[in-house]
C-alpha cells in the first residue's frame, strides 16, 4: 500500500508544481540572453529535456530519484547533499520531542489519573488547556525571549555554532529550546488523553479483581493498568505524528533551525520547485513509514491485533 | 389524521423541552458560558471596529514602534500602523477564516461522508483512498504545498486551500456513523416506502449525526485560526495588506521586535490565545450537552 501511495503523491505534486508556470530556464539564463539568443535557449531547453511530454519528464525524474539522484535546486546546489545534512537535524528535533513528550505526557497523565483531583492533576489540566490554545510558534517566541534574550542561556537560532568545542554540548544547547517548544505542544494533548484512558482502565472490572486479590497498589497500576491504558495512547501517537512534523516545520522557522521544514518553507517562498518536490516526498514517506511502525507496535502490545486481520 | 398531528405536536413539545433542558445544562457549565461570552465579546468588538472603519493600513512613519498609550491603545507596529486597529480588523479576518473554513469543510465532509457511508462499496473505497492520500501529509505541509502550487497569496486562495485540505476528519466521522445507522429499522422502513435516497440520507439519517458535526465544527474554528496564524507566521499566509492575527504576529520573526517591542507580539498573541481558549471551553460544554455517548 505504501509504494503505490507514494507514487500517486509524487505524481500529483510533480504535476501540480508544473501548473505554477515557473520556467526553470529563467533561473539559468539572464533575461537579456533569453530575448536575444532564442535559438540557443531553445537548444538548451531541448538538451535538458524540458520539451518532452510531462509524463516522460516525470518518469525520468522518478528514475533519477530511484538511483539516488535527487537533482539540483534552482540555485545550483545538489539537493542530495543539502538533504543529507538537514534531514538528520529534523530527525533529531522531532525524535527528541516525540520521546520527551511521550514520557512526560504519559507520566503526568497517569499520575493525574491515579491521584485524581490532586495538585498535579489540577496543574496538568490547566497546562493542557493553555497548551492547546496558545499557538506553538508563540510559545517558541516567549521561550526565546526568556531563555535566550533575557537569561542568555541558550542560543536563539541555528543548529551548529562555528566555535563549538564539544559537538555534544553544542547539540544540547541548540536543541533545547526547539525541543522544549514542540514538547509543550505535544504534551498537552497526550496528557489529557493518557489521563482519560487510565481513568477508564482503573474503573474497569479486572482492576477491581486485581485489587481484591491483594496485589500491591503500585503493581496494579503498572502491570494491570498501565499496559492496558497504553494501547489507545499508542494509537493516538499515529495522529500526533502529523502534528509533530507539521509543528516542526513552524518551529524550525521560529528558531531558524536548518532542518527539512525550513528548507521546504524557504523553497516555497523562493519558488525553488525541485527542492519543494523532494522535501514533500521525504515528509510523505516519513509519515507512511511512521504509521506502519505504529501498526507493528500495536500488534506487539495487544495480542488481539494481528497484522492482516 | 387527527392522531398524526397530535403525535407531531407531542414531538414538537418534547423537542422544545429537550432544548430547554440542554440550555439549562449548558448554563450550568460555567467555563462554557464564559467561553461563549468571550467569543461574543471579541467577535462583536472586531466587527464594530471593522464597521466604524478604524484606520489599520496607513503607516505613520513618525509614530513608528510606539509603546502602548499616547493615543495608541496597543502601540504601533514597525511601520507605524495603529496596533489596536490592526488587531480588531485582523480579528475579523481571522474569525472569518476560522468560521468559514470550519463550516465549509464540515459541509463537504458531511456530504462525502454520507455518500460513502450510505452507498458503501466502490464509492466508499474511492473516497476513503482519497482521504488517505490527503491524510498522508501533515495538514500544514499539505497547505504549504498547495500554496506553492496556487502561487498567489490571497484570502480567497487561502480559504479554498483550507477547505480543500480540511474535510477529512468530518468525512471519516460521518461515514462511520452512516455505516452503522443505515442498518437501523427506520432507515429500512423509509427504503421500503420507496423514499428517495437523497431524502433518506440528508433528511432522515443526517439529523442523527448533527451533534458530533456541530461539536467538531466548533473546535475546527479554533483549529483553522491557529493554522492560519502558523501559516502567516512562516510567511505563506495572506498578504500583509489584509491583516489577520497571524499576519500581525509575523513581525515577531525579527529578534529585535521580540526583544524591544513586546506589544507588537503580545497583543495579537493574547487575542489568538484567548479566542481559541474560549472556543475550546465552549466546544467542551457543547459536547457535554449534545454528545449523548459521552455521558
Map the helices and strands:
The complex is a heterodimer of chains A (309) and B (295).
Chain A: H1 2-18, H2 25-28, H3 31-36, H4 38-48, H5 54-66, H6 79-114, H7 119-133, H8 136-150, H9 167-202, H10 205-212, H11 217-254, H12 260-270, H13 273-301
Chain B: H1 2-28, H2 30-52, H3 83-119, H4 121-135, H5 139-150, H6 155-166, H7 168-181, H8 185-192, H9 197-233, H10 245-249, H11 255-260, H12 262-290
Question: Largest beta sheet of chain B, briefly?
Answer: none
State the distance separating the first and last CA atoms of chain B.
38 Å
Number of helices of chain B: 12
Q: Estimate the global geometry of chain A from the Cα principal axes.
A: elongated
In round numbers, the mean pLDDT of chain A is 76
Question: How many individual helices of chain A?
Answer: 13
Largest sheet of chain A: none
- Number of DSSP E strands of chain A: 0
| SSE sequence of chain A, one letter per element | HHHHHHHHHHHHH
Structural class of chain A: mainly alpha
Strand residue content of chain B? under 5%
| Gyration radius over CA of chain B | 23 Å
Low-confidence stretches of chain A: none
Distance between the termini of chain A: 15 Å
Task: Kindly report the greatest chain-chain contact and the residue count on each side.
Answer: A-B, 48 and 41 residues
Quaternary structure type:
heterodimer
Query: In total, how many beta strands of chain B?
Result: 0
What descriptive keywords fit this protein?
heterodimer; A: 309 residues; mainly alpha; elongated; B: 295 residues; 12 helices
